[in-house]
């Protein structure tokens, strides 16, 4: 369709009836349409005609007609033969290839608001060979054209994919049979219930009836004939069920070209109710990985939805888990194609030996890492399958060299150690212990290595004590301390390492056997913790003494003025900086970590006091921050919490407040007024800054709200007696 020739076609005029209708549409407007400013029932009128094999569709806007503009807003031209369409926008004075619905969306016109009379509808239907309503027919034709264009656009891409897929051979004849028997490892023995116990059942692996003895439903066992692990299932209790999904692999040589393809399937078996001999195995192929003749991956295909149009094979990047983590998707590999491939394409990979020896593997990841670790072939052929698994799980780090002529070279062990590694089918953990043996020249027995591996220990975990003790001694020491403390071995090792680290900080000789091999590890660890805390407190105390010279004098009169007790609780005053630091360390709050509370004590804004249980006067219970008149700003137990006994505590503190009112001086009351102002100012500042608690039980709450909630004002009686009360928190 040439644009010049299209414009030379005979124009269509708007019908007089449409003009009349457009000018009287105000009558038919609904209140909602008037509110929206709708011009009428219809937004546009449509005219259609066929000329020189071209369908002309003219759209006249009602708003244009109302302004005596009788030219079409849009001219749509369609060629059925060329399978093309194009629209001329009269307002914009340009040609547009967009769909009609997209063009009209620009002017907020719904396709349903276009009027087409019966005659024009028949013209459109006849030309497009459809029975759909006119506008719907135009919409459908354009959508089909777009789909055809997208298909043509993608054809080069999809054709190249299809050419690759043509090189993939069909499935082996015995594929489903092999999958159901070997690829899916869930097998059952079905039996019919008998009062004295069933004696015969059907094995789904043997595919025949076998002798059984007193089976129980869902009990694990082995078939007496084939030795296969099975699960017993009663025929009467078993309805229709299926196994879980299993991953299975098929490696085939490509047709009419070099290289091979790794095909990845998911399979499971369905068992019918009562029909245990007639099961159905479903197998879905989801991935095809294409390799060159030398084992290098060329491309990867997945079966999925392509551009929301069709299910097909789509070219895809390599699986993410191949490059960034230790995940393996293990499954059985079809064995009957491997023999021939191992003589050619897979000759230097060791994949066949790995698949036959380890049974369930991830061949795709193996081939991916084989390019990085060519020594994998030699490791496999020596029978070290566990070590191969560790390489595929990215657990080897620097334990294995990527290249080497002999196993002893790339494994960094001697011949004797290599034989020991092979005999125990060792992985990377066993290898690291043997490498330690070679580097130190100290023999490590197989029993010790197996024990360390079982506990999950590597040489680096014991480096803090390896110079002082043999592996055998370390093992016996850990076992003995575990039995003594009741803790598991790994926790004992952690405590041991922590203890020696603290001992070194304390200046102890950690090379002395009395220190590094202490008889009571738990006790010495606790002692070391206390000494470290004491050391930290000493450093903190010296810092505070330097900053607050003469601090002690500010605590002198606290005892006489604020200490009080009844039968259950007592309030005591700190005698030194050490008392405050010990309180903070024991209760794990911030009174010892920030200088704020020390600043307030010096300025007489507030004081730190200790609430104790009468029976345990030396054990920290609650820490109090109080103003000079006894107003309690904070009362916090361990980790800034308040215990379940807070009501009893509060009742006692009320008595305490009443008592100390009698002891206050005018100077104390004057200090209170200033303290109250500073407190209110502080609350407002942290509220304005929107300070939020970040940890603990109050995480996410506003600090100002918590402080105001915890504020404990003087008893009402004190205020009525003319004593200086503080404002009650909101």
Structural notes for this entry:
There is one protein chain. It contains 29 helices and 24 strands. It has 730 residues and is of the alpha+beta class. Among the domains are: 147 residues, no CATH class; 155 residues, no CATH class; 121 residues, no CATH class. Strands 12, 13, 14, 15, 16, 17, 18 and 19 form an eight-stranded mixed sheet that branches. A six-stranded mixed sheet has the order 5-4-3-2-1-6. A hairpin with a 3-residue loop joins β16 and β17. α22 packs across α24. It starts with a helix and ends in a 10-residue tail after the last helix.
How would you summarize this macromolecular structure in one to three sentences?
The protein has 730 residues and is α+β, with helices and mostly antiparallel strands. Helix content is 41%, strand content 19%.
What topology emerges from the helices and strands here?
Blueprint: H1 3-7, H2 16-23, H3 31-36, E1 44-51, E2 54-61, H4 62-66, E3 74-79, E4 84-89, E5 94-96, H5 100-106, E6 114-116, H6 118-128, H7 134-165, H8 175-183, E7 188-191, E8 200-203, E9 208-211, E10 220-222, E11 229-234, E12 241-242, E13 246-253, E14 260-272, E15 275-291, E16 297-306, E17 310-316, H9 321-324, E18 331-333, H10 338-342, H11 351-358, E19 360-361, H12 363-370, H13 376-381, H14 385-392, H15 407-410, H16 415-423, H17 428-440, H18 446-455, H19 471-485, H20 489-505, H21 513-516, H22 521-547, H23 558-562, E20 564-565, E21 569-572, H24 577-587, H25 596-603, E22 607-613, E23 622-626, E24 632-636, H26 646-661, H27 666-688, H28 703-710, H29 716-720
Parallel strand pairs: 1-6, 7-11, 13-18
Antiparallel strand pairs: 1-2, 2-3, 3-4, 4-5, 7-8, 8-9, 10-11, 12-14, 13-14, 14-15, 15-16, 16-17, 18-19, 20-21, 21-22, 22-23, 23-24
């Amino acid at each position: 369709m040439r644009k010049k020739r299209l414009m030379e076609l005979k124009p269509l005029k708007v019908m007089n009836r449409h003009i009349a209708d457009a000018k009287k549409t105000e009558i038919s407007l609904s209140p909602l349409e008037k509110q929206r400013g709708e011009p009428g029932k219809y937004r546009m009128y449509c005219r259609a005609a066929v000329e020189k094999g071209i369908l002309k569709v003219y759209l006249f806007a009602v708003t244009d007609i109302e302004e005596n503009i009788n030219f079409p807003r849009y001219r749509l031209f369609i060629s059925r033969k060329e399978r093309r369409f194009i629209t001329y926008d009269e307002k914009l004075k340009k040609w547009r290839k967009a769909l009609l619905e997209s063009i009209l969306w620009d002017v907020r016109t719904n396709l349903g608001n276009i009027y087409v009379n019966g005659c024009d509808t028949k013209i459109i239907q006849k030309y497009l060979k459809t029975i759909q309503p006119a506008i719907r027919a135009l919409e459908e034709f354009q959508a089909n054209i777009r789909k055809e264009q997208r298909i043509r656009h993608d054809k080069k891409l999809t054709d190249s994919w299809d050419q690759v897929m043509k090189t993939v051979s069909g499935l082996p004849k015995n594929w489903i049979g092999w999958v159901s028997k070997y690829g899916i490892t869930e097998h059952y023995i079905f039996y019919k219930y008998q009062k004295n116990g069933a004696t015969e059942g059907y094995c789904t692996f043997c595919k025949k009836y076998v002798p059984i003895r007193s089976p129980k439903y869902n009990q694990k066992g082995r078939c007496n004939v084939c030795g296969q692990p099975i699960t017993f299932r009663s025929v009467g209790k078993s309805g229709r069920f299926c196994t879980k999904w299993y991953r299975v692999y098929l490696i085939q040589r490509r047709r009419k070209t070099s290289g091979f393809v790794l095909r990845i399937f998911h399979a499971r078996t369905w068992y019918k109710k009562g029909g245990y001999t007639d099961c159905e195995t479903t197998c879905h192929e989801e991935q095809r990985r294409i390799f060159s003749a030398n084992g290098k991956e060329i491309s990867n295909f997945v079966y999925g939805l392509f551009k929301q149009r069709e299910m097909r094979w789509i070219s895809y990047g390599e699986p993410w888990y191949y490059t960034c983590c230790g995940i393996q998707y293990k499954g059985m590999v079809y064995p009957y194609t491997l023999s021939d491939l191992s003589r050619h394409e897979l000759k230097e990979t060791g994949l066949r030996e790995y698949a036959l020896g380890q049974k369930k593997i991830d061949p795709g990841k193996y081939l991916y890492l084989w390019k990085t670790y060519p020594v994998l072939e030699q490791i496999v052929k020596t029978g070290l399958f566990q070590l191969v698994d560790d390489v595929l799980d990215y657990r080897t780090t620097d334990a294995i060299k990527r290249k080497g002529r002999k196993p002893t070279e790339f494994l960094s062990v001697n011949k004797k150690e290599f034989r020991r590694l092979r005999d125990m089918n060792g992985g990377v953990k066993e290898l690291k212990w043997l490498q330690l043996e070679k580097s130190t020249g100290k023999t490590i027995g197989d029993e010790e290595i197996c024990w360390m591996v079982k506990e999950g220990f590597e040489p680096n975990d014991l480096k803090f004590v390896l110079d002082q003790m043999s592996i055998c001694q370390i093992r016996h020491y850990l076992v003995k301390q575990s039995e003594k403390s009741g803790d598991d071995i790994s926790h004992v090792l952690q405590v041991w390492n922590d203890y020696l680290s603290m001992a070194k900080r304390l200046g102890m000789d950690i090379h002395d056997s009395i220190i590094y091999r202490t008889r009571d590890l738990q006790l010495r660890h606790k002692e070391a913790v206390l000494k470290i805390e004491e050391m930290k407190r000493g450093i903190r105390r010296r810092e505070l003494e330097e900053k607050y010279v003469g601090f002690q004098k500010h605590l002198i009169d606290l005892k006489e003025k604020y200490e009080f007790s009844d039968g259950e609780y007592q309030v005591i005053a700190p005698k030194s900086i050490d008392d405050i630091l010990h309180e903070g360390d024991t209760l794990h709050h911030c009174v010892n970590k920030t200088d704020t509370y020390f600043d307030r004590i010096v300025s007489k804004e507030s004081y730190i006091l200790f609430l104790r249980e009468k029976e345990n006067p030396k054990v920290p219970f609650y820490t109090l921050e109080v103003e000079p008149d006894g107003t309690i700003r904070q009362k916090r137990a361990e980790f800034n919490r308040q215990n379940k006994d807070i009501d009893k505590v509060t009742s006692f503190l009320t008595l305490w407040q009443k008592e100390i009112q009698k002891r206050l001086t005018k100077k104390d009351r004057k200090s209170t007024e200033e303290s109250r102002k500073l407190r209110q100012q502080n609350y407002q500042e942290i509220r304005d800054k929107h300070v939020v608690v970040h940890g603990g039980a109050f995480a996410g709450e506003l600090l100002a709200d918590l402080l105001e909630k915890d504020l404990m004002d003087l008893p009402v009686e004190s205020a009525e007696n003319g004593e200086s009360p503080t404002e009650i928190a909101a």
